[in-house]
Amino acid sequence: MDDFRLLFFLFLAAATSTRLWLNRRHIRHVLRHRDRVPDAFRERITPESHRRAADYTVARTRLGGLETLYDGALLLGWTVGGGLEWLDRAWRGMGLGPSATGVAVLLTVFVLIGLLELPFSVYHTFVLEERFGFNRSTPAVFAGDLARQFALTVILGAPLAWVALWLMAHTGGLWWLYVWAVWIGFGLLMAWAYPTLIAPLFNRFSPLDDTALRVRIERLLTRCGFSSSGVFVMDGSRRSAHGNAYFTGLGRHKRIVFFDTLLGSLEHREVEAVLAHELGHFRLHHVRKRLIHTALLSLAGLAVLAWLMHRPWFYSGLGVTTPSDYMALLLFLLVLPTFTFLLQPIAAHLSRRHEYEADAFAAERAEPDALIRALVTLYEENASTLTPDPLYSAFHDSHPPASLRIAHLSDRMAAERS
């Protein structure tokens, strides 16, 4: 066994065992606090809702543990198990040429990965979500979504893969800079196109017709110095009972979107507070910072790939006998999460810090108590646990635990009153 293959096994074992250990910690912690609502929520959350959230969290975490083992086995099958090697040989035998073969291999692998993960998606939607009353999707809707996702993968992925492989083959040692520029441009294009071209393929978006709420929102936008191309309601209830809100798009094409399920569970003041939080991410440049971080990380990743692709041990250690540009790219994309898993808490920490900052922004532009009420309602409606394991949360949660988030807002309200 060569050194790189051994290193891959060690990192995969470490990542898998850490995930499973965190899952077990999380389940034990949630079950230990299942029958007692935290003091800060006792007046707002019923014991029944708290137990339901605990049971939902445990069920999801257990399913996540099975997915971790399954994904690890699939990764081994693709790499040292010979899956990529077999697929590469099959497509090479077609005599399509390097670029066409590379695009075909890349698209085939990602389509097959989606199909192999389909059993978990079906179980999550039609068993787990159904059991806890969240699923509103039908087999027809689910199948339609799957078909559209497949079509988008081919329509968008094929030309992007072809351009990347052409640049890798024809632009010399600095190909990774050109591919990076194309990747960033593609990301910006998708951010621009998503609200008006892609999202409507999956959901219906209608202008907000609640006049009083729309006036309140327009006043908030003015206070925050935010302009958008409109405020829309999305038919999220067609698929799920979960509620959410977000803004999307670039420049003048930014739009604000509320799930219809969210509008059905919050009062106007609470909706305003939730939107103020989302606007806080924009005004505090969190979106821009995340884009810059992503761009820098992708640049560093491509630079590493440019070095790895000329190392024979990179291919042989992962079960590939014939080096190629497309196989180097594919191997890198598949194994990168294994080698970067232990850095996950850093990204989670930065995200949670942004959430605190956006909460503070919302507390200044809207009513802090309304934001607290909205958060508590959303935690209850979405069956989010109020008692996550701290270490599990540090690895996995992009948002702070409910108790800390509410405590920050309550402390801010107390400070303003004193």
Task: Give average pLDDT, whole number.
Answer: 91
Task: Name the helix and strand elements from N-terminus to C-terminus, one letter apiece.
Answer: HHHHHHHEHEEEHHHHHHHHH
Main β-sheet: number of strands, strand sense, barrel status? 4 strands, mixed
Radius of gyration (Å): 23 Å
Count of alpha and pi helical runs: 17
> Residue share in helices?
over 70%
Instruction: Give the amount of beta strand, in percent.
Output: under 5%
Total number of strands: 4
Write the layout of secondary structure elements.
Elements: H1 3-32, H2 47-78, H3 83-92, H4 98-116, H5 118-131, H6 139-170, H7 175-198, E1 205-207, H8 211-224, E2 231-234, E3 245-248, E4 255-259, H9 260-263, H10 268-283, H11 286-308, H12 312-316, H13 325-340, H14 344-365, H15 368-381, H16 390-396, H17 402-417
Parallel strand pairs: 2-4
Antiparallel strand pairs: 1-2, 3-4
List its traits.
globular, single chain, 4 strands, 418 residues, 17 helices, 4% strand
Q: Can I get a quick summary?
A:
The protein has 418 residues and is mainly alpha-helical.
Please describe what this structure looks like.
This protein has helices at residues 3-32, 47-78, 83-92, 98-116, 118-131, 139-170, 175-198, 211-224, 260-263, 268-283, 286-308, 312-316, 325-340, 344-365, 368-381, 390-396, 402-417, and strands spanning 205-207, 231-234, 245-248, 255-259. It is mainly alpha-helical. The protein contains 17 helices and 4 strands. Strands 1-2-4-3 form a 4-stranded mixed β-sheet. The longest helix is centred in the first third of the chain and has 32 residues, at 47-78. β3 (245-248) and β4 (255-259) form a beta hairpin.
